[in-house]
Amino acid sequence: MAAVEVRNGYKYYGSKSNPKIVLNHLNMNVMRGSIYGLLGASGCGKTTLLSCIVGQRCLNGGEVSVLGFKPGQPGSGVPGSRVGFMPQEIALVEEMTVKETIFYFGRIYGLTDERIREKFKQLKDLLQLPPARQMIKECSGGQQRRLSFAAAMIHDPELLILDEPTVGLDPMLREKIWEFLVETTRNSKLAVIITTHYIEEAKQANCIGLMRNGVLLAEDTPTNIMIKFGTQSIEDAFLILSQRQGNEDDLQEMLNNSNQQALPTSALPAEVIDTHEPQAAPEKPPLPYEEPLNENRKRIFFTTKGRIKALMTKNFVQLFRQPSGIIFMLLFPIIQLSCFYLAIGKTPTNLELGVYSGEVSSYSECFDDKLITVYQANDSCHFNKLSCRYIRELGDEVATRKYYSSEEDALKDAKRAVTVGYIHFAHNFSSSIFTVMEDGIHASDGAVDHAELSVHIDMTDQQVAYFMQRKLRDKFSSFMHSVVKDCNVSSAVVELPVQFQEPIYGSPDIEFQQYCAPGVVMTMVFFLATLMTAAVFISERMDGIWDRTLLAGVSATEMLWAHLLTQLIIMALQSFEVIMYIGIVFDTYNKGDTTTLIGLLTLTAFCGMLFGLFISVFCKSHTEANFVATGAFYPMIILCGLLWPLESMPRFLQDLVMVLPFTIPSISARNVIEKGWGITNDKVYNGFLVMAAWTIIFFVLCLIGIRRKA
Ligand SMILES: Nc1ncnc2c1ncn2[C@@H]1O[C@H](COP(=O)(O)OP(=O)(O)OP(=O)(O)O)[C@@H](O)[C@H]1O
Question: Which fold has domain 2-82+157-291?
Answer without folding.
Answer: Rossmann fold (3.40.50)
